[in-house]
Amino acid sequence: MTNAFSDRLRGYGRLNDEDERLLAAACQNVRTLRAGHHLIREGDRPDPVFVILEGWACRYKLLPDGSRQIMTFMMPGDFCDIHIAVLEAMDHNIVTLTRTKVATLPRAKMQALVEARPTITRAFWWAQLVDTGVLRAWVVSMGRRTAIERVSHLMCELYIRMRDVGLASHNRCEMPLTQLVLADALGLTPVHVNRTVKELRQAGVMDLGRGWLTILRPAEMARIAGFDANYLHQRLAGPGKFAVALAERTATAGRAARGLTPAPQ
Amino acid sequence: MTNAFSDRLRGYGRLNDEDERLLAAACQNVRTLRAGHHLIREGDRPDPVFVILEGWACRYKLLPDGSRQIMTFMMPGDFCDIHIAVLEAMDHNIVTLTRTKVATLPRAKMQALVEARPTITRAFWWAQLVDTGVLRAWVVSMGRRTAIERVSHLMCELYIRMRDVGLASHNRCEMPLTQLVLADALGLTPVHVNRTVKELRQAGVMDLGRGWLTILRPAEMARIAGFDANYLHQRLAGPGKFAVALAERTATAGRAARGLTPAPQ
DNA sequence: CGGAGAATTGACGCGAGTCAAGTAACGTGG
DNA sequence: CCACGTTACTTGACTCGCGTCAATTCTCCG
C-alpha cells in the first residue's frame, strides 16, 4: 500500500509501517481530474489540504496585462500548504496541467495524523522547507540566470524531484510540460524557450520533447545550470547519477564559467 | 512590554496579554550586530530560531560567477523558519544590512510557546504563509515585470510590511537599502536601478534616497506596480492610505496598462 | 482526413546590461 | 569641525540577450 504521498515523505524521515499505513489511509478520497481543472482559485476561501498522487499541476498568478507567471510545479507527492486553512482567501491559483489524480485530506484527518505520529509531523516540516527552498531557487534563477542557465536549472530540479519520488531513472523522465508552460514558469517567451531548448539539444546536453526529458550529459548540464541540489535537502543523498555529475562539475570548475563546451563527438 | 516580534504576530491573530507577555519573555537573549554580520551561512548546521527586533537583514545566495541574488528582506518582527532545525545544512546565507538587534530563541522555549498557546501557534503559521506569499510575489516580479514595475512593487511591499509593524506612516518610512542591494534583490544592475528610481522620482511618484522612502502618489504607484496587497494577508486590512490607493486603481484601470501618467503639476 | 494546439524559424526592435567617468554623501580621525 | 578616504549615487554611450511579429511545419487525436 504505497502511493506518491508516502513515497515523498519517506525521503524526509524514517517512516515505519504504521506511518505508511496511516498515510495511505489518509488518501481515501481520490478524484481524477482532466488537464486545466482549477484546484484553487485566487480569492477562494481555502479548501481542505490536497495531495497530488498522479500527474502535474502548478500554482500561478495572472497579471493585469494578462500574462501569467507560474510559481510552482506540483508533481506526484506534492501537496498544498498544510496550514492553509488559517487564511481567509487564497492569493493565487492552482490548476492541473495534465490528467491528475488528487487526494483530499479533511482537516480532522490531517490533525490526527500530525498528533499521532511525530515522524510524520517532522516529514511535513521537512517537505515544507524543501518547497520554500525550491521557491527561493526560482527567485535566484529568474534574477541572475540567463535563459540557457534557467532552462538547464529547471530541468535538473524537476529530474531530481521526479527521481526522489521514484518516477525517474537513467537520466530520463516524463515531462509533459509544453514550451508555453515552461515559458510562463521561467519568465521567458515561448519563442525563446524554444530557441534555448534547441541549443541544448544541438549541444547534446539534453533532449526535451514529446512529453519526455532526457539528460544526455549530466555533468555538463549541471555545470551550465550552476546546479547544486542542496536546496532540495535530500535526506538519502546517495551517489546517484547527478551526485557523480556534481563531482565532475567541481573537477571542471576551471573552465569558462558560462557557455557550452562542444559535444564529445 | 511590546517588541517587533509581538507587533508582527499581533497582526495575524488576537493575542491576549498573556500571549504578549510570553512573546516578550521569549526575546531575552538579544544581541546587537553591526551591518554585514552573518547570522547564517550556507552549509551551516541550522542554529536556534532568531527574530529581528531592529534593523534589516536579507537572505541571499552567491552564484558561481560571483553575482548575488537576495531572496528575502527581513525587517523588525521577521524571523527565520521555525522548523529549520530539522534540516541538516542551510542552503543559503543570512546577513545583516544595517546595525541590527536580534533575539535568539532556544528550541525548548520555542516548543513551550507553541504548546502552551494555540493562538501563538496559529500566528506562526500565518506568518509563515505570508513569508511564502512574499516569495511567490518575488517570483512573479522577476518573471513578468519590467524594471519600473519591479521597483514600484518592491517599494509598495516594503512600505506595507513596515506599516504593519508600526514603522511607517503617512506614506513614508526608513529604507536603508542601497541601490546595489536593491539591484541584487530585483535581479537588475545597480545602474539600471538608479535610472529607474530616477524615472519614478521625476514622475513625482515616489522618492527614495538618504535612507528614506516617500510614496508621493500611492494610487499611481500601485497602478504602475500592479500591486495587490492580498498576498500579505493582513488580518486587519483597514482602509489605510494604500487601500484607498487600490480603490482608485480600480477606477483608473481603463488607462494604458503600463507607463507613467504625467505628474499632476 | 482534418483541425487545433504545439513547436519551429527568421527578421527586427527594445529593455536592460556593460563600461567608464564622473559627483555627492558619509564616517572617521586628527 | 574640517580633511580625507570610502562608499554610494549619477550619467552617457554603446552592446546584446531576449521579446515581438509573423509565417510555416509538426503532432496529436478525434
Automatic annotation (TrEMBL), chains A, B:
Which ranges carry the HTH crp-type domain? 145-219
Which CDD domains does the UniProt record give? CAP_ED
- Keyword Lipid metabolism belongs to the record: no
Q: Which SUPFAM superfamilies match?
A: cAMP-binding domain-like, Winged helix' DNA-binding domain
The reply on keyword Protease is no
All residue ranges annotated as the Cyclic nucleotide-binding domain in the record: 11-114
Pfam families this protein is in? cNMP_binding (PF00027), HTH_Crp_2 (PF13545)
Please indicate which superkingdom the organism of origin belongs to.
Bacteria
The record's section on InterPro entries has:
cNMP-bd_dom (IPR000595), cNMP-bd_dom_sf (IPR018490), Env_Response_Regulators (IPR050397), HTH_CRP (IPR012318), RmlC-like_jellyroll (IPR014710), WH-like_DNA-bd_sf (IPR036388), WH_DNA-bd_sf (IPR036390)
Q: Which UniProt keywords apply?
A: DNA-binding, Transcription, Transcription regulation
By its UniProt entry, which PANTHER family does this protein fall under? CRP FAMILY TRANSCRIPTIONAL REGULATORY PROTEIN, DNA-BINDING TRANSCRIPTIONAL DUAL REGULATOR CRP
Listed name of the protein: Crp/Fnr family transcriptional regulator
Q: Which organism is it from?
A: Sphingomonas qomolangmaensis
